[in-house]
Structures are given as C-alpha cells and as structure tokens.
Amino acid sequence: MTVALWALVVLPAVAGGPLLLGGRRADRVAPALALGVAALVAALAVAVAAARPAVDAPMMAGARWGLAVDGTAALVVPAVAVVALLVLGYAAAEIRSGRSRFHGLMLVFLAAVLLTATATTLPVLLLGWEVMGAMSYALIAHHWRRDDAVAAGGTAFLTTRAGDLGLYLAAGAGLAGGTLDLAGLAGLPPGWRDVAAAGVLAAGFGKAAQLPFSFWLSRAMLGPSPVSALLHSAAMVAMGGYLLVRLHPLLVASGWAVDVAAWGGALTALALGAVALAQSDLKQLLAASTSAQLGYVVLGAAVAPAGAVAHLIGHAATKALLFLAAGAWLSALGTRRLSALRGAGRRHPLVGAGFAVGALGLAGVPPLALWATKDEVLAGARERSPALYLVGLAGALLAALYAGRALAVVLRPVPPGVESGYDTERDGTRVVTPGQRGPLVPLAVGAAVLGVLALPPLSQAVADAVGSGPAPPTRIAELVLSGLLAVAGLTVAVAAPARPPAPGWARAWLGLDLAARLLVVRPTLALARGLARFDDRVLDRAVRAVPGAALGAARGLARFDDAGLDRAVGAVPAVTRRAADAVARLDDHGVHALVRRLARAARRLGVLARRPQTGLVHQYYVQVVLMLGAAVLILLLAR
Amino acid sequence: MVVVAFVVLALVAVASGVAVFTVDSMARATFALALSFVAVGGELLLLDLGYLGVVTVLMMVMEMAVMAVFMVMFMMNPAGLMPMSMLHNRRGALAVSVGVFVVLAAGSVLVPWPTRRGGPPADPTRALGEAIMGSKMLVMMSISAVLFATMVAALVLATARGRYDRADSPERP
Amino acid sequence: MLSLIVFTPLAVAVLLLCWRGLPARAVSWLWIAVTVVEVVAVLGVWWAYPGEGFAYEVDRPWIPGAGAGYHVGVDGLSLPLLALTTVVFAACAVYSLRRQPRPRQFAALFLALQTTCLGLFVSLDLILFFVFFDLSIVGMYAVIAGWGHGPQARRSALTFFLYTFLGSLALLLGFIGLYVAAAPHTFDMVALTRDPPTRGVAGALVLLAILLGLAIKTPTFPFHTWLPPAHTDAPAAGSAVLAGILLKMGTYGFVRIAMPVLPDAWRRHAWVVVVVGVVSVLYGALVALAQRSFKRMVAYTSVNHMGYVVLAVGAAGLVAGSDAQARAVAVTGAVTQMVSHGLITSALFLLAGVLYDRGGTYRMDAYGGLAGDTPRFAALTAVAAFASLGLPGFSGFIAEFQIFAGSLGSAPVAVAFALPGILVTAALFLWALHRVFLGPARHRLSATADVTAAETAAVLPLLALSLLIGVFPRLLLDVVEPAARAVTELVAR
Amino acid sequence: MTERPLALLPELLLLAGAVSTLLTGAFLPRERQWVARLVAAGALLAAVLATLPAVGERTTVYAHSYALDAGTTAARLLIPLAGLLVVGIAAGRVAGNRRETEFYVLTLLAVLGAVLLAGASDLLLLAVAYLLSSVPLAGLAGWGRDRRGAEAALKVYLVGALAGVGLLAGAALLTALGGGASDYDRLAAGLAGAPSTAVAVGVVGVLAGLLFKIGAVPGHFWVPDAVQGASIPAGALLTTVPKLGGLLAAYRLFAVAVPADVVDWPLLVAVLAAVTMTLGNFAAFGQADPRRLLAYSTVAQVGYLLMAVAVAGRAERALPALLVYLAGYAVTNLGAFAVLAAEPHDTLDDYRGLARRRPWLAATLVICLLGLVGTPPTAVFAGKLTVFTAAWDGGLAWLVVVAAVNTVASLFYYLRWLVPALSLPSGPRPLRPASPRGPRVVAVATAVAALLGAAGALPLAGLVEQTLQR
Amino acid sequence: MTLPMFLLLASALFSVGLYGALSQQAVVMVMMGLELMINGVVVAAAALWWFLAPQQPDGQVLVLVVIAAMTVEMAMGFAVVTLLFRSSDADMTDMAGELRG
After folding, report:
1. pTM for the full model?
2. E30, E43, E95: which to substitute to probe chain B, counting the most B Cβ within 10 Å?
3. In whole angstroms, how far apart are CA C58 and each of A90, C54, D116?
4. CA C364, CA C374: separation in Å to the nearest integer?
5. In this complex, which of D155, D201, D285 lies closest to A605 when CB atoms are compared?
6. Omega into A501 within 30° of 0, i.e. cis?
7. What is the per-residue pLDDT across A79-97, written as a single tens digit (0 to 9) for each?
8. pLDDT reported for residue A590
9. B with D: 3 or more CB pairs under 8 Å?
10. Interface partners of D (3+ CB pairs, < 8 Å)?
11. Which residues, other chains included, contact C102 with Cβ-Cβ below 8 Å and sequence gap of 6+?
C-alpha cells in the first residue's frame, strides 16, 4: 500500500514531466496518456483512501519527507482524483493547441495537489503547494500569445505566493519551536505558535481566494475552461480551505486564529456573493461564487471541520460541473456574456440540464449537495456566534439569487437575433461534442447526491474521519429554513425580469485588483527604479569619491616635499580647496565609468607626485637637506 | 697663545671659505678654498695631529692646483679671470644654510658631550700607523680598491677615446 | 589525489599554450575531455568520502620563511563546491564548442582558472587560499579583457581587477593579523580553528578586514558595483564561471575561515552580517526588477541570492536564544544555496549568452514571443528561471527553505524583512519571461535560432542537477549537514 | 685580531676578477672582448661558489670590522648572482663596444662595493664601502658617454657626494659618541648612554648615505633620471645591486649598532618607508617611458623593503623576510629590465602587440610586472607576505595597511604597461625588431625564477633558518 | 681651547660649504662647496677624536678616510664635468635638466 501512496504522487509527476517538455511531437498521444494516468491515479486514490497508509523518508534536518492519508485526506483525495479524471476527459475533447504541454501541466498539477493533500510535514506541503501555484500560472497562460492571459497567470502566481510566504514563516516558527510536522504545530510554544497560525492563515486565504486576495481568481478566468474547472473550483483553491481544515487544531490552540478564519470566511461568502450577483460574465460569476463558497469552507474549517470537508467535496463536484458547462457553451457559442447566453440551455439541452442541476445545487435547493453541507457549516457557526450565523445566511441568500439569475438566463427561450452576441471571445463551433458532454453526467450526479455526507448517518462517519468530535446535531428547522431561503431567492431571481442592480464596486470585484496595483505593485516598481538609479549614480560616485580624497592627500604630500619653503607655507589651504573642488568636480560629472575616474585621478596624483622631480640638481639638494632636517626633527620629537 | 692661534686660524678658514663664493672669479675662489684648507691643516696641528695636518695641506694644495688647471681647460671663461656670478635660488640657499648653522652651532654648544676617556697617546702618528696596519687593515685595503675603481671610472668618463680608437672610428652605442 | 585533481587542468593548460599547431576542434575536445575527467574524479572523491571531518589531507611545508604550508583537504563544506566547480567548468567547455576567437588560449585560460578555483576550495592554509583567491582574479581579468564583448570590456575588466584586488588585500591583512595573533605563528586553518587566536578589539578589526575582502568578492551591498559591468561585458562562459564559482569564494570564506577562526568576534558582530544580508537580498531583488538588460538582471539576482547566504551565516552567529539545530539548518541552507546558485545562475548566464549570440543584444524589450521560434530555448530558460526563483522541486527551494526556516529562530525580524525578496524575484523572472518569450512576436529571429545541441548539452545537466537536488536533497545534505553542524558548534564555543 | 685572509675569499675573488678582467681586456682586440666577459662572469660565479663553504658562519673578522653571518652570506650569494644577470643583460647591448671591458670591470667593482657595504660592521668600513660602490655607479651611469648619460652621471655623482658628506659626518659623530670605537659591537655599548640629540644627528647623517644607496626618499632623486639616462644594463645594475647592499647595511646598522631606546629610529624608518612607497607609486602613474616607470617602481619597492628594516631586531622574522623579499625583488626587477633590454622602446604604447611578436617575452613581462605587484605565486609575493607579516609582528600594523593600499595603487600603472603588451597590434603587423639573445635568455630565466619564487623562496628561507639557528 | 669651539668652526665651514653647494650653478663651484663641507667634517672628526676618545685610533683613521673620500670625490667630479662638457658642452647644473618628471 505504501507503494500505492508513493505511486499516487509520483506517477502523474513522472508522466507529466516528459509531456511538458515533449513539444509538438507528443501532442497526439498526450490526451490518451493523460486520461490513462488520471484513471490510474483515481483508482490508487480510492485504494489508499481505504487503506490509509503512511510513508516517510529522510528529507532535511528537522523534517522528514512524509506522506500519509488520514481521515480528511481519505475523503478529499479520491474526490479530487475523480474530478481531475472527468475534467481531463472534457479537456481531451476541447483543448486543441499545445496539447502535450497542457496535459503535462495538468498531470504535474495533479501530482502537486495530491502531494499537498497527503503531506505530513511543512516542507513537503510547501513543495506541493508552490508547484500548484506555478502550474496554475502556466495553465492560465496557456494561450501564451495573449499578453493579458500571461499577465493574469503572473497575477495568480504572485498573489498566491504572497500568501505562501506565510508558510515559510510558519516553517521558521516550527523549526524554532522544534518541529516541522503539521500535527505538531499546535503544540508549539505560544509565541511561535501564533506566528505559525498567522502564516498558515495567510497561505490558506491566499490559495482559497478569500478576502483580500480574491481578485486573482477573477483574472484567472482567462485560462481555458478545464483549468477553471479543476484548479479554480475543485482542486487548488479548495486546497486553501483544506489546509485550514487540517490545521484546525492549530487555529484552535492559538485562539484568535479561529475568529479570524471564521469571520474571514463569512465575510468573503457575503461580499463575493454580492460580487457574483453583479457579474455580467458567466465565468466571472462562477469565479466569484467560488470564492464565496470557499468562504463557507474556511468558515467551516474554523467552526465545523466535518461540514467544511463535506462542503468542499460537494462544491468541487458542483462547481466543476458548472465550469465545464460554461466551457462547453464558450467553445460552442464563443461567448461567456450572460446577455448572449440567453436560451443556451435550450440550444444544448443536456448541457442545459447539467447546468440546471449545478445552479440549483449552488443555490442550496434541497435535496442537492450544497444545501445540506452548507447547513452543517452554518450550524457550527451558529454555535459560535449568532452574528456569524446571520452573515452566513445572508451569503446563502445571495448564492440563491445569483444562481437563480444564471439559471433564468440560460433556461429561457432563445430570443431572436441572439446570434449577434455570439463569438465575442472566439469563433464558436456551434456544436458540443460527446466528449464534452460525457463528463457532465457523473458530475451532475455527484452534485446531486453528495449532500449525504452532511446528513446522518454519514455525517457522523465524516466527523469521525476528520476527527473533529461529534458532528453538531442538525436541526430540521434550520434545514427547512435554509431550503426555503434558497427557493425564495431562486424564485425571486427567476421571476425578476430585469437584471438586478449592479453597483460598480461589486462589478469590479470590490476594486481589490486596483487596490493591489496602487498599493503594492506601483510602489514596488517605483522603489525598484529609484534604487536602480541610486545604484548607477550614487554608489559608483561614492566609490569614485575615494580617489578624490586620495587626491587631496597626495596634493598635501606633493606640497610637502615641494621645493622652497614659502610655497610649503601656503599649501594647507590650497590643498583643502583643491581637494574640495576636485570632489565637487567628481560630483558634477554625473555618471561616468569608474575606471576612467580612477585613471584620471591617478594621473593627477602622478603629476603631483612627480613635481619634486624637477630635473634640477640644486632643487634636489634643497629638498634633500630639508627632508633630512625633517628626519632629525622626527627623531628629536619622537623621544 | 694656543687659543689665539686657534681663533686666528679659524677666522682665516671661515673667511676664506666665505670668500670662495663671494669672489667674482673662479680662479680666486680656488685659491680661497686652498687657503681655507691650509688654515684647517693648521688647526689639526694644534691638536698635535702633525701627520694628518700635513697630509691635508698637501692634498688640498695639490687638488687646488689640479682644479686651477682644470678650469683653464674647461670653463666658459678661460682662466676664469673675468667677473662672473652664477647663482640661483640664493635666498633659499641662504635660509637653509643659516638654519643648518644655527642648529649645528646650538647643538655643539648645548649638547652635554661625554667626558674624555683617557689621554692622548704619546705619538698619535704612531698610533695611527699601528691602527692602519692592524685593526683597520681592511679599511685601508678597501680604500685601495676604491682608488682602483676611481681610476677606471674616471677614465671611462673623462677620456674621449678608448683603447681601440683611431680618431675616425665612430661611436657605437 | 586532490593535488592531482587540482593541478591536472593547469598542466593541460600549459600543454595547450605550448602546442601551437593544435587545430581548434581538437582543442575543444581535449578541453571537454579534461573537464569531464575532473568531474568523474571528484565524484570518486565524493563517493569515497567518509562523511565526517577532513579527508585526503596533505600537509607539507611550503614557505617556511612565511610559516605557510601546502595544506589541502576536503570536508562537507568544500566537497560540494569542488563538485560544483568541475561541473560548471565542464558545462563551459561544452558550451564553448561554439567557436571562440583564439580557442587555444581561451581553453588554456579556463583550465588554469579551474585550477585556481579547485585549489581555493581544497586549501586549508590561509596563504594557499589567498594565492588561489588572487590568481582567480587575474584569470578572470584576462577572460573579460581578452574575450569580453562590448565597447568597454577593458574598462569593466579593470574595474573588476582593481576592486576585487583591493578586497583580496584586505583579506591578506586579515590573514596576517590572524597569523601574528596566533601562538605559535601559523597560517594553518585547522590549527587556527583548533584554538582561535584573537579576542576583543583585535579580533573585531581582523574580522572587519576579512569581512571586507569576502564581502567585495561575494559581493554584498554596497560592494557589488563591480559585478554588473563585469558580467555585462564578460563572455557567456566567463560570466557563468564568475557567477557560478568565483562568487562562492566569498561565501565559502565565511563558513571556512571567518566563522570557525573568529568565533567570538563573529558572534559579537553577527548582527552586522545579518543586516548586510537582508539589505543585499532586498536591494538586489529590487534593482534586478528594474533592469532592462537580461544579463544585468541575472547579475543583480546574484546579489540577491548571495544575500540569502550572508543572512544565513549571520543568523548562525546569533547564538543567544536559538537552538543549535535551527542554526545548523541555516548553515546547511547557506551551503546548499551556494551549490544551487552555482548551477542555476551558470545555466542562466549561458542562456543569456545564447540570447546575445542570436539577437545581438541583452535588451529584453528588443525581443518578445520568442517561444514561437525557439521553443527549446524558451523551455530551458523558463525552467532555469523557475528554478532560480526558488520553485520547489529545484535545489533553490531546498536552500531557501532551510535558510529562512533556520534563520527565523535567531533573527525573526530580519527574516520577515527578507522574505518578500523571493516574491520580488518571482515577479521579475515572470516579467522577464513574459517580455522575452511570451506575448505576440516582436522580434523575428532566424529559423535556426533555437539552441544547438552543444548548448543544450551544456545547460541541461546543470538544470538536471538542480532538479535532482531539489527532489532528493539527501544526496547533498548527507555530506553538508555534519559539516554545517560542526561549524555551528565552532561558532557557538 | 683574527687574520684570516681566506675569510674574505669571495670579496678578494671579486677584486681580483676586476683587475684581471681589465688586464684581459687590455690585450684583446675590440671584437673579441667576450673573453673579458667570460672572465668577469667567471669571477662572479667563483665568488658565489666561494661563499658556499662559509654558509652558516656567525662571526666577525678583522677586529669586528666585518661580519660573517646570514646577512653577509645572503649578500655574497645574491649580489654576485645579480651581477651575473646584469652581465647577461649587458651581453647583448654592449657587445663590441669599445668600453665593453670597462663595463664589466665597473660591474664587478660595484658588486664588490655592495657586498662590502652589506658585510661592513664598522662605520669606517661602511664609509669606504659606500665610496667603493658609489664610484662605479657614476661611471656606469655615464658609460654610454652620450648627452643623457652625462646628465645621469652628473646626478648620480652630485646627489651621491652630498649624501656621502652626510655619511662621513654622521660616522664621525657616532664614532666619537660611541667612545671612539667605530665597530658596531662596541659602538652599541658606547651609544647606550650617549646624548640622544647628537646621536640623532649622527644617525640621520649615516642614514642619508644609505638612503641614497637604496634610492629611498630623500635619496631617491637620482633614480629616475639616472635609469632613464643611463644605458639599460646600467639601469638594471643601478636599481638592483646597490639596493641589495644598502638595505642589508641599514639592517645591520640598526639591528646591531644603534639601540632603539636612545633614538626612536624604528619610527623614522617606518615614516620614510611609507613616504617612499607612496611617492614612488604615485609618481609612477602616467609615466610614458618604461624606464622611468620601472625606476619609480623600484623606489616603491624599496619602500616596502624598508618595512623590514623598520622592525629590525624587534620581529624575529625581520631578517628572513628582508632576504626573501630582496631575492625576489632582484630577480623580478632584473627580469623586467631584461625584457626592456631585449626590446627597448621609448613609450609604453610601442609594446603593443608584443604578445604576438614575442610570446615568451610577453609572458616574462606579465610574470615580472605582476610579480612586482605582488601577485601570488611569484617570488615578490612571498617577500611581501613575509615582510608584511614581520612588520605587523613588529607592531607596525598601520604601515602594513599603508603598504597594502599602495599595492593596489601600484597595480594600476603596471597594468598600463601590460595591457598594450597583451593587446593585438593596432596597425599592420610590425616586423620583429632585432633583439639580442642574451637579454631574452636572461628574461625567460628570471621569469621562471620569479614565477617559481614562492616555491623557490624555500631553499633561501631554509638557509636563513639554519644560519640563524646556529 | 674646547670642543665646542672646534665644533663651531666645523659648523661654520660646513654651513658655508652647504650654501655654496646650494647656490652655485657651475658644477665645479658646487664641488668646491662640497669640499668645504668635507673640510668642516675633517675639523669636527679631528676635534671629536681629540677631546672625546684620543685613546682609540679610530678617530684618526676616520680623518684619513675623510681625506681620501675628498680626493676620490674630486677625481670623479672632474671626470663627470669633463664628460658633461664634452657631451653637451655645458658646465652648469642647470644645463643638465633634460631628464625630469
């Protein structure tokens, strides 16, 4: 079994690496290979989930290369693996350009996710964690000829890495505190424990696109749909929440971290829900809702780990489904704009049906998955504080509203002349291939039934697996309430013909992107340029000033053994003056090569030092006598 | 009596020394220098260094003769009899040399010279001879080497034509 | 054995110089052969290395008048750098299969340079160390002045020479100070390490001199101004060696001489080192971010990466209130970083050479969308760039992780300040990749512009090694960790 | 008093060599004076060989007026060898000249004078040796008998005469103050209680003469002019042989005769060293004529050498350091002059493309100039290292710092010569100017010696060690 | 008749000679200056021997050496002057200022 665990991580990596570098030659075989590996990985995932092996090998002082499948992982790993398999199946049908690169990246990414999910020590976790970020960069920038896509990838990588710095901090704290094991972090001495908790929070929020990091997810939507479906719904962002779930003990141990996580999640659910409601672009809407739903996961990680895991899995299925549906339309109709997607559901019924299931689930309509899972999280929230609960409920209502809105758009009859709005992104093929349709079905099923994870009797099993004590008893009343809320919101959204008010701040993702630009990027670049200028001018000049000083000294020297006493008298002021304006001249001249400076200064020194050598013997005589006199003076004074 | 002699000779020596650089003809300067040397020789005699005194006088007189001839041969103004003054940096030189004199004089007066050890030998000249033949033998041998070297070097520098030259043979670098 | 490894290249160099008629191809192949043999030999040494303490020691009197001896040996600190040296020089040899002007002299010079580098890393005598230190400067000067491109290669070379020569003399002063302070007088590192000679102010002054010399060579802020011009005008192989090996001489000096021989001065002034390190990290990263020339950018990232090393060794000196293991990890990270930076930056400079060779300029805005025409070149550069920005899976990550994790305990604030460095590094490399390789094609290179087999053969092994270390760090750490622990204990005494 | 004529066998051989060379030359036709050259070389070689049995002696002869110890032994080995190299350099330049024989004779005498200078442990002998080594210098300087040669001779002579007066006056004063004894051993005893003011004047007087010999400030004025004006072989001799003798003499004087507690001569010498090296280095900047450049570089080198004298008797390694440096300096400096003699040019730029024309010569130049900088592993590096160490050990750390800074500065002007020599010829490839073989051989030989210096310093240092231990 | 008296005389001669050496242009005159200085040295040496250590003969020998030195200097001086005069037809130090800097 340990072999299976190693294979789980290594297999996709070694399969992906060659594909990645394979170039055009590998394009043909890439999809098939990728699918095969993904299938194998899925099987392995199920197997290890059952057997829960743990392996480790020496890595570095104070940290071992440890992998293990604990209860949480046993739930998440298979889910991720399966979703990945389905998404790859879809991608095989959709992706046309740079196939080997794409599939290679996907496989390496898969390996990284599984590594992250099974890591037991911080270095290993960080390893998978950062590779995920890099892969997301490469995948978002899949269409590398497009500057905006590349820039978007960069934003995603840098933003998430900014959060990752937290993990480095945590690692430092762990080592200073004596352990790098994830399990041991909760037991760190207080000071280091808080540092670790803060770092973990930062990392989790960054990856999970929680406030204030959410904006990168919006720009990430420039990537291909399968990427959005896997990275930005099921796998990568989910890992942010997953990390917090795994480190629930640490959060609890440090006290304050729990509140930060809970409120951060709840507020994200609320704010990004509003953002989603305001979007006019389907993928953007879905992205915002991803942040919002992950908000529940993070909230759950703080207050109800079991619920969080359940919600995470349910959301993975649901959101993958929705993204794939949106992707299908994008490739068929060439647009993502809601206004242009009117009736898309009727034009492609199966896709429409799948989308409907997903949207209803997103809205939290019973008995679909997210209804129950979200409710378990909310139950945990209510136990912590009513305010938290209310905020969560409001978020749920918003979810119902935007889900309903999307649903209403795609399901209503095809209006005439809608074609005019097609092909805004690319030239649509007008057909959805079977390969694209196929994966939707199992995902839809998953989105429909996974709610059982949050309902008795399974909920208790999940709770045991996650090891967060007994699951809070779910009250029927709340289930009904949230269900009614969802239905109400849905009906309102569907009934309301006009698009809801969309304030600018919401449409622009709370202006987070702009804020980051103004507050971080610009100043950094300005500072960099300033420093570069400083480096070219000031430092060199400082170096160049040295000859200037030496010049002064040498003038003094030359004066000293210069012929004639009268001159020697007037030397001192002259020396200082000349040295001064020498340095001044050095400054005036602006940027020059250091060596030319040195050379010139040296030559001046040379001239000065050569002045005594007048070639006239009698002047030599005078100097000799004077210097010998000076020598006697030295001897007399030195006694 | 002796003191008087000393003072007289000293005055002569210094005065003629000054004269060397004040008289307006090189020939006279030469003779002034010779006079100064003679005076010094006299001073040595006062310290009953008979031998050394005589040697000094003879040497110097001879040299002065050579120098006189020499100037007749080479100087700008043959016989060096016409008035001339070839000075430079006079003020500087004066300042320096006066300074040096003050320092030396002050030193020679103020320095607490050690006390005399033992008395003079009965016959200083004899002592000198023994020293030359004895402890200072190496010095004398070296002096002979010096004289040899001087001959060679002076010949190399002074004689226009080497052993091999007929008048027409060209210089070779 | 070591002496053989060290002086074989020199012997071949002399042979090459004397052998007028040798055709260019033969020269290149001979050169490659020698370097490869060196790699194999060092691998053999590595394989036979007991794992603790000094091995292959040779100690002969050399200049009794000066109390200097010919004392060489390897331990866990020098062995990795020794291997690195051979690998990088082999890569340069392969890379130089592309025609160089005056190939015979070029090869000879590089072989001689290799001898100086190898010798420096094995020498256990201060004077021997200094000799090789100084000769490496002379050799590199000749490389830049003789084969540099660009109008002011001469000038840059002179700057480099004068500046680093100044550093080496400061170093010499420090060594003499040690010698005089030691009783009995000796230049032997091992003896000096056994009982550190100086204490108090004298120790501080000696340390100052040594630090100055090493800091100029490393280089750290603010002594780095010689680096960018030297790199910009040096030939690709020269830059690779300069950045890959010569810079390590400075940092190696920290762990080999400054820390073990002057422990208490080091402890007392470690905070200065830490501050210098942090400033170098941030400063190097930010200035690199603002560069327009690819090669200058890489040069400044060297300042940044060396900054991490300095930070780590400094933090290892802050003994109070931090546990030994963490400090050992920091030192391990420092050594790992030396190796990693040597591999990755050499690769980057060789690739920069390819860029210049094809496009005739280092200005990044002159290119764009190259990935279309030269996919292999783009792929190699991308891998190198990600390795350099510390992506896990490559050696850089192992190094930086250990440095940060190890240093945080003793210098939390400093590390907190230094951490953004890796973010800036990431930003500047992504930006550079974007400007040069991605986006719409702005610069059309000839169809044959992609990397040649030779160039690939030169660059790929370096990156492969980096990957290997990144995935299986034990290969390296097994050797480094004991030595690092030893150094930590020496400092802490 | 110990009369051991054979104790001075090397010196006697030199003198006899001078005489017999002169006589041989007198009977030779102009074109066959190489025989005289052989005689001279033979005499020098004989002197070296005659020294070997005496290695390790520690005694004084002729009533303490001449010391036989490590210093003298080294002088007896080094100086004749240097003379031999000079003869080699001269071979190509002066062959067939009508005064060729005289050149060798004067060389021999200069060598003899330098050796006596180094060995003298008696103020009188010091004065005579001073004369003996000054007179041939003037002769050699003016040997070419051209306008510049005459000026060179004039300057050597006049400055030397003034310094000589100082030396004589100082000798008189010290002898009297030392209780009338002029040999160092009794002098040291006598000076212990003497009035230090007078002693100071005396010391400075004697020092004036020695400073002229070694060409250190303030006695350095003749060096550049003489080296530029005299013929190249003469220049090589002027900058090497007397320095060797003079520095050893100064070392002996201070180490044995003058107690440091009467007058603080270490400080004085240190200051002189600092001034000398600084002046030499700075003045060497921007010299266009390689001869002047070398001349100033020798001044700077003497500055470094004086560091060892400054710590005479206070750092136990001072003497070995001085000897190692002297050996390295002599070899390296003569090597540079040999290159000059092999391909004489009036400006540095004329050496452009030397690497193409004569690679071996260029290599020699590189080795010798870098050696003068003090780049390892050359002989001068070994010397510098030991001298710096000794100086620091003797408590003159500040001086070591000054010297280090100076070294960096010196690099600059040496490179000014190297860069054109190594760079490609700008114009059409110039034809190789004819170049005599002698200097080239010497050049390469010295280059090898200078390069292996660090290792080659080993036997010499070892020798010093054992002689000191006896 | 005391030592200081002799030393004063010596100083006077020495200084006068120095003045000459410094101020004269003609090489021969400069030589005369040097002669005069040596002259002073002779006086000083003799007096120092007589008044401080008459038992040691070294002082006397020194005087002898000084005289010999004086002679040698003279001879060399004449030779140099001859050479100078022959080669560049000059007898002034200032005329030989070609080598400088």
Report:
1. 0.87
2. E43
3. 66, 10, 44
4. 15
5. D285
6. no
7. 999 999 999 988 888 888 8
8. 32
9. yes
10. A, B, C, E
11. C146, C147
